[in-house]
Amino acid sequence: MNDQFPIIALVGRPNVGKSTLFNRLTGTRDALVADLPGLTRDRQYGYAEFEEKHFIVVDTGGLMPDSGDALAALAEEQAQIALEEADHILFLVDAHKGRLGADESIARHLRKFKKPVTLVVNKAEGQTKNQATADFFTLGYGEATPISAEKGDGLPVLLREILKDFPETPPPEADDDDTIRVAIIGRPNVGKSTLINKLLGEERVVAADQPGTTRDSIAVKFDYAGRKHTLIDTAGIRRRARVTEVIEKFSIVKTLQAIERAHVVIAVVDAQADIGEQDARLMGLVAHRGRALILAVNKWDGLDKADREKATYHVTLKLPFLEYAPLHYISAKAGTGLPKLMKDVQDCYAATMREMKTPELTRALEQAVESNPPPAVMGRRIKLRYAHQGGNNPPVIVVHGNQTDKLATHYKRYLANQFRAIFKLKGVPLALVFKTGDNPFKDKKNELTPRQVKKKQRLMARTKKRYK
Q1: Where is this region: Disordered (predicted)?
Q2: Topology of domain 355-468, per CATH?
């Protein structure tokens, strides 16, 4: 079993709800969902948490044994990778369509892996357990668990059962409390290992001019500017359709774990290559996990003015959601730009671990509201009363008020930017949580005194006479 995060793979034939379940477990919309078979081709990785236990979920393309379709074969190859690296397999079937021949073929195939398999009957809303599961006992995986991935029905029972043997997630602070953990991520051959070697002043990790040199996450401790650091060199993550070697398949999971353990992530891109979808996905995952992020554009020294302008344009065009992340143009080989890069690493660490006092946050909230009050909703003014900190790494600020659920998205973004500027939260994807206080009188009936009842009756009588 993986010593950091259990890996749970979702498999089944097309259109049984694997991507819907993936989105439900991870709390994201990362997996495309539509009522079309074969929509998912690649593997999709995501983090999930249930009752203090964290795990990695892998969504796969629908398995269509012996279909003869070339795209289906590629999707099946990706699913094979997920099965090899999984600690537990969720085999999804469809309660509406019942047991099909494809389900039976998949059931036989899964036995080859000799891994724990839980049979999950999806789309079981409105059915009793016996109605939903009776048709699937012959698949040979014991008693099935009925769920509704769309509505979330049955998921707590399912997760408790499959996670019962997994330990609670070990605390990520394996180093000293004041050690800054920095993960270096990016596509293959962008210079991650070269960057680490330059910072260390020695050839500590293997660096070569070919993709795939680094296969595992390698942690190296060193001191910089009087602070303890742990640099984590990760394997380059290629587009999943190109991941074929077994060792490289597992290195992807190691990279995800490195991101989870880090305080600060340096995302390295190649200035001499186009910024692709895989770069954006990887950085989006870092932002989703709430890790402080720095973008380093490497191999800058080999570009002329026109190429530099082109590289800068591509960064701003394709990564607009990283406007909060410090941007550095560096040469890992020559060492240019590295002192400023490491200064931002320390600033980002201070930001993600910062403790903010409630009076200070409330004053900052009042200043922001005074400068730009929230827009009224249906003629009613939204009042934001006070704020306090809800956590760090990433920093979470909880804002209390009335009608906070009606705050416009642009105003929430404005508040986040104000907090980030006032508290110097560099490189941090600040999380704001809004809470509306309940009206203590909303369900309380106003009991009238006998005198008030008589007065009300007299007023009603006069009103009736007036309109006769």
Answers
A1: 439-468
A2: GMP Synthetase; Chain A, domain 3 (3.30.300)
Question: CATH for 7-163, among 2.60.40.2470, 3.30.70.100, 3.40.50.300, 3.30.420.10?
Answer: 3.40.50.300
Are 423 and 344 in contact by the 8 Å Cβ rule? The answer is no
**Residue 53 in marked binding region:** no
Residue listed under structure tokens 């369900």: 443
Helix or strand (DSSP H, E) at 288:
helix 277-288
Residue pLDDT, tens place only, 298-348: 888 878 888 888 888 888 787 777 788 899 999 988 989 999 999 999 999
CA nearest neighbour of 238 among 205, 271, 213, 202: 213
Strands 396-401 vs 431-436: parallel, antiparallel or unpaired? parallel
Task: Find the largest Cα–Cα distance for the chain.
Answer: 100
Q: What is the pLDDT of residues 413-422, one digit of tens each?
A: 999 999 999 9
Ligand-binding site membership of 438 (annotated)? no
Per the annotation, does 34 bind a ligand?
no
Is 143 annotated in a binding site? The answer is no
- Is 14 annotated for ligand binding? yes
Q: Find out whether 190 is annotated in a ligand binding site.
A: yes
Q: Is 444 annotated as a binding residue?
A: no
Is 236 one of the annotated binding-site residues?
yes
Q: Is 192 known to sit in a ligand binding site?
A: yes
- Please indicate if the annotation marks 124 as binding a ligand: yes
284 known member of a binding site:
no
Whole-prediction pTM? 0.58
180-352 placed in CATH 3.30.450.20: no
Same-fold call for 7-163 versus 180-352: yes
